[in-house]
Every structure is written in structure tokens, then in C-alpha cells.
Automatic annotation (TrEMBL):
Cell location: Cell membrane
Any Pfam family hit: Na_H_Exchanger
Record has Nuclease as a keyword: no
GO biological process assignments: proton transmembrane transport
A molecular function GO annotation: antiporter activity
The organism of origin for this protein: Kribbella pratensis
Name the record gives this protein: Sodium/proton antiporter (CPA1 family)
Keywords noted in UniProt: Antiport, Cell membrane, Ion transport, Membrane, Transmembrane, Transmembrane helix, Transport
Domain of life: Bacteria
Topology of the protein relative to the lipid bilayer: Multi-pass membrane protein
One cellular component term from this protein's GO annotations in UniProt: plasma membrane
Source lineage: Bacteria, Bacillati, Actinomycetota, Actinomycetes, Propionibacteriales
Domain Cation/H+ exchanger transmembrane: 16-405
Transmembrane segments: 6-22, 29-48, 68-85, 97-130, 173-195, 202-221, 241-274, 295-313, 319-339, 351-369, 381-403
Length: 415
């Protein structure tokens, strides 16, 4: 049986109801809501027209849906972080971004090359699987902004802060490596494009993204909290749509200026958060964005599960499965563990931070974005990335609750 267009409204309604109930239902068990939605999507795929469920066939829809989901999630995590940005305060973040992330990309690319992939394809796979996910990692991230007159910047939970701030930035910082893979596939020898890539795609576009984020975030922060006219003082009129307006506007401006929009959105959220840290309007902005993020996340997980039913994993080979397992269980934990040496983290905190490099919607977006230049390997790439995302969702979803509880108990004992 297949569901027609009108029946999809029923499916959408049931999916939203499931989304409201599932997190509460699974709260007592070592099973995260994303696992439930993936499973529901697999079942849903049995009842709908499977010819339209392939991310290869619907690459544009896949890209834009994943893109919007990431943007909303980046705004949410930026608003949730209490800690002011700084070199020392964000030491663990810089280690994860500047050491662990490039090392993990190189390790995946090297393993792929040893398993027979073309160099550009191997690099693309490493870059696509590089971002830790701000969408699916809510169980191991900071839960929201602390506001009020007595609120202090969050300092105690280094693990949640590290995973939240890393996910906020590395979704955008994976872009240069994706471009390097595309250039390798389309422009030939590295010597012909390496200097331009370094100066523009790695440095220039990142700087533009940061400047746009800081500039727009500062302007909107001034407007929302201290504009001379009450008409523009959105914090007083309680207009949470400001968060969505800023998300889309900042992203659009950064993209028009050829900067990295993902970086701009996260930086803008941090800048808005810093404009007036104690105002409870931040809670309303975060709550609004969080609800929208949940709806988009449910949708993309249902679609991913349905695509699996439709044959997404059929081209998966032993090499692809081995790379996924290697990344989730060995390469990410090992590179992140090494990168965090010398930080104030306890040994158990380092291991948990290193282990929870959740792969998800960011990988879906980047493969949909760059896949057109790798058509020969595209079915295999989608199968490998899909398998890795599912493996990550299951492994990390099962482990998140008990491990975070363990850290909380140890932290309380130490205190």
C-alpha cells in the first residue's frame, strides 16, 4: 500500500504527535529519540512511494532541508552557550577544531585511499564526515541559556560546553575541506589551486563569515535590548521570531558576500547572547528555535529512515562499512583524546568528549552539496555516509544517558 498526497497530511500529523511523546517515553531508557525516529522512518518507507525517497534523486530537496535544519540548530546552540568567547575559556574548543578535526579528516581520507578510493573521493568522505552534529546531540549539549540577575557564565560542565561549541563551529569549518575535495576532482593537480584555496576558501571566506556574524549580531543586539524607540526594542515586545529572522538574514548576507554562512549564524547567536546576558528574552528566543529545530529534525530523520527502506544502503560495501565503524569507534575518539591533552579536563571527561563526535545532518548536507561532482561514486558515498550516520545515532544515542549520568555523579562527588 502507498500513501497518496492527502494521506501525507495524516502521516505528518502522526509524526508530530510521535515527536511530542517519544522523548518522554524513552527518557527512562538508554534509547534516544533520534533512534526512535529513524526506526519510524524505516517503517514509514514501507507505506509510501519509494521512488521519491532517494537523496540522489531529490538532491536539491535533501540539501535545502538539511541546510535549514543545521541553520536553526546553529542559532539554538549559539544562544544556549553562556560562556563568553575567548582563547583560554574556549581552550577545549580550539583543540577540537584545530587539531582533532583536521586529523580526523586526514585519517578518514588516508584510510579511504588505502582501501582503493581516488584521492579526491577519499578527501570528500573525510570532509563530509568531519562535522559533529549540533542537531542530534542535544542529550550531550548545554541545555539552554542561564538568565536572570544572579546568572553566571556556565563554567562547570566542560564536556557539554566542549561538545556544544565544537558542533557550533565545525559545521561551517568543514566547508574548506569539502571545496578542496571538489577542486581535486575538477581542477586536477593540487599545485594549480592550493594557494587560492588556502587564501580564499580557508581564510578569506571564514573571516567574512565571522565579520558578518559579529556585525549583524551586534546591531540586532543593540536594537533588541537598547534601541531608543520601543518599537524596535524587540526584547520588550517579546518577539521570538527575531531568532529566525536573524538566522535566515545572517546566513543570506554571508552567502551573498561569499562567506561561510554557517559560521556567521553561530557567531551572530553568540554575539546576540553577549549583548545582554541576563535578560530572560534569551530563553524565549532559544525556546522558539528549539521547537522549530525539533520539528525539522523529526522530519529529516523520518526521511532518512524511509530512504534506508528504499535502498539507500544497498550499494554499501565492506570497505564503506569498515570506514564508518573506524570513524565512530576509533578515529574520532583517538584524535579528539590526543587533542585534549593538557586541558583541565579529568580523564573520564576527556574520553566522553572524545567519544561523542556525533555524525548526522551536517554530513547529509555536505554530500548533497558536493555530490554532483562525484557522480560515479555517489551511490556508494551515500550508502557509506548513511551507514555512518545511523551507526553514530544508535551508538551515541544508547550511550548518551548513562555516560552523562556517570559524569554528573562523579562531578557531584568531587564537589
Amino acid at each position: 500500500m502507498t500513501i497518496n498526497g492527502d494521506g501525507l497530511y495524516l502521516v505528518a500529523g502522526l509524526a508530530l504527535l510521535l515527536g511530542a511523546v517519544l522523548p518522554r517515553l524513552l527518557r527512562r531508557y538508554a534509547v534516544s529519540a533520534p533512534i526512535g525516529f529513524l526506526g519510524a522512518g524505516v517503517l514509514l518507507g514501507l507505506a509510501v512511494d519509494q521512488s521519491h525517497l532517494s537523496p540522489i534523486v531529490e538532491s536539491s530537496l535533501t540539501k535545502h532541508l538539511a541546510e535549514l535544519t543545521i541553520l536553526v540548530a546553529l542559532m539554538g546552540v549559539g544562544l544556549a552557550i553562556d560562556r563568553p568567547i575567548g582563547w583560554h575559556r574556549w581552550k577545549v574548543t580550539w583543540r577540537l577544531l584545530l587539531v582533532a578535526m583536521p586529523a580526523c579528516i586526514a585519517a578518514v581520507a588516508g584510510a579511504g585511499w588505502l582501501l582503493g578510493l581516488a584521492p579526491a573521493t577519499a578527501l570528500l568522505l573525510g570532509a563530509v564526515l568531519a562535522p559533529t552534529d549540533p542537531v542530534l546531540a542535544s542529550d550531550v549539549q548545554v541545555q539552554g541559556p542561564s538568565t536572570g540577575a544572579d546568572a553566571e557564565p556556565e563554567e562547570d560542565d566542560e564536556v557539554r560546553f566542549a561538545l556544544t561549541s565544537e558542533a557550533g563551529l565545525n559545521d561551517g569549518l568543514a566547508f574548506p575541506f569539502v571545496y578542496a575535495a571538489v577542486f581535486g576532482a575538477t581542477k586536477g593537480a593540487v599545485g594549480g589551486w592550493a594557494l587560492e584555496w588556502f587564501a580564499w576558501d580557508l581564510i578569506g571566506r571564514t573571516v567574512i563569515g565571522v565579520l558578518v556574524g559579529v556585525g549583524v549580531g551586534w546591531l540586532l543586539g543593540k536594537m533588541a535590548f537598547s534601541a531608543p524607540s520601543r518599537t524596535f526594542r524587540l526584547a520588550e515586545s517579546r518577539e521570538p521570531v527575531l531568532a529566525l529572522a536573524m538566522t535566515l538574514g545572517v546566513y543570506g548576507l554571508a552567502q551573498v558576500l561569499h562567506g561561510y554562512g554557517f559560521v556567521a549564524v553561530f557567531i551572530a547567536a553568540l554575539t546576540l547572547r553577549a549583548a545582554e546576558r541576563h535578560h530572560d528574552f534569551h530563553e524565549e528566543l532559544h525556546g522558539f528555535i528549539e521547537q522549530l529545530e525539533h520539528i525539522l529534525t523529526w522530519g529529516i530523520l523520518l526521511l532518512l529512515g524511509s530512504a534506508i527502506t528504499a535502498g539507500l544502503l544497498r550499494p554499501l560495501t565492506f570497505a564503506g562499512a569498515a570506514l564508518g565503524v573506524l570513524l565512530v569507534l576509533v578515529l574520532r575518539p583517538l584524535t579528539a583524546w590526543v587533542s585534549l591533552a593538557g586541558t583541565p579536563m579529568r580523564r573520564s571527561e576527556r574520553w566522553v568528549t572524545a567519544a561523542f563526535g556525533i555524525r548526522g545532518v551536517g554530513s547529509v548536507f555536505y554530500l548533497a552539496y558536493a555530490g554532483a561532482d562525484f557522480r560515479t561514486d555517489l551511490p556508494w558515498l551515500w550508502a557509506t555516509v548513511g551507514f555512518t550516520v545511523v551507526l553514530s545515532v544508535v551508538v551515541h544515542g544508547v550511550a548518551a544517558t548513562p555516560l552523562m549520568r556517570m559524569l554528573d555523579v562523579r562531578r557531584d562527588r568531587a564537589a
